[in-house]
Amino acid sequence: MKRKKVAIFSDVNPTKSYSCLQHLAESLSDRGIDVTLYAKIPISDLKHTKAWRCHVISIYSFIYGKIPFFRRYIAQLHLFFLSVFYYENIIIHELVFFRLAWLAKKLNRNLNIIHYATELYDENDEPSHKKLLDFYRNNSNLPDLVIECNEQRSKLRRVLFGICSPIVVIENSLPSESIIVHKNFIEDVGYKKNQCTLVYTGAAYLHRELDRLIDAFYMSGLGEDLKLKLVCYGPVKDVDVLRAYCDKMIPGKYELYSNVSRDEAMEYVSQSDIGVVYYRPSLSMGNRFAAPTKFYEYLSLGLPIVCSNNDSLIPIIDKYNIGQYVNDESTESLSYAIVSVYKDYILGHVNKAEVKNIFNTNLAYNITAGPSIKILVEKLV
pLDDT band for position 121 (50/70/90)? Predict the structure, then answer.
């Protein structure tokens, strides 16, 4: 029997973010699929993929990968030819490769296209993508299958873009077996330590609500008992701006780590006590229905969560009582949520062992993704 073969095309670096790409590729590989992930991974980061249970190729590994600016277009051409002449199944991540897939389908009628949609954009989110969004809207039923990140977004995408293709949901979680107990991890000592840690992982951009988080932390008055740990990625100039703002608002009450690997980031998370996830809903539709991997990463290591009031996250917080979301979008409300979760933690009303058990039992990738992966495997030719 011929082994099914699939290529995943992504324009991101999954060693730093979008770990869902790794988990999807490995889940398919574990089910006997020949998987190759093509992604924009700097050569220096390829070492982080050596242990992945799938074949990983960086566009920077090719000769054209050393040509600035033009490599993006040459890579599109390269992947186009692979889609037309080599692969029968391709998974395109986001909209970057949507036109490529459309044209490849014109020449290769047997091409099976799966769209992995980890972001929900409209013109208000990414104005520069307006033409691409228009193209997507006009050809939204090109994919043979769509993968979404939660049920609410699945229903909304179908309505917004008139999608008739089948849609499956794979939450942006992580497999329980992928969680490493880090060397400095201690399970439940928040109420015994002199100082607890509130951790944020993500982009080092103040305009992405980080200034609001820093202001709320300052307003909480917990600086002597709670330290803010920022594990960020981004250009050096943005990291420097972030550091300067922290020095101004909360000097000596924060730690900042920048551009570390995902494993290193998880090490810092494992040494923390409370996680913060903040995507102000009114800013965009994508924020309102945010489905961030870090939400699940925090839970996988037992961290209760301070959370924004996103439609996609409120039901999980309410159902499992694993933290608190803000009442409104004010800095005062975020500050109150920080204080509230901190008090619950030090008083033992929520603890790491319980949070980890809730994750492993109900929210881990191997629990939630199984049925959708099965449908995906059956869909491949």
Answer: confident
Mean pLDDT, rounded, for 115-131: 77
CATH number of 5-175+365-379: 3.40.50.2000
Every domain range in the chain assigned CATH 3.40.50.2000? 5-175+365-379, 177-363
DSSP category for residue 335 = H
Find tokens 């869902």 and name the residue: 20
Asked if 26 contacts 54 with a C-beta cutoff of 8 angstroms, the reply is yes
CATH topology for the 177-363 domain: Rossmann fold (3.40.50)
DSSP annotation string for 93-112? ESSTTHHHHHHHHHH-TT-E
Asked if residues 320 and 362 have their Cβ atoms less than 8 Å apart, the reply is yes
- Residue 20 burial (CB count, 10 A): 24
Buried b (16+ CB within 10 A) or exposed e, 320-355: bebbbbbeebebebbbbbbbebbebbbeeebbbebb
Distance CA 372, CA 244 (A): 45
- The pTM for the full model equals 0.91
Helix (H, G, I), strand (E, B) or coil at 4: coil
Q: Identify residue 23 by its one-letter amino acid code.
A: H
Q: At 19, phi and psi to the nearest 5?
A: -60, -15
Lowest mean pLDDT across 61-65, 110-114, 284-288: 284-288
Q: What is the three-class DSSP state of 141? A: coil
pLDDT tens digits, 368-380: 999 999 999 999 9
**Residues 179, 247 contacting (CB under 8 angstroms):** no
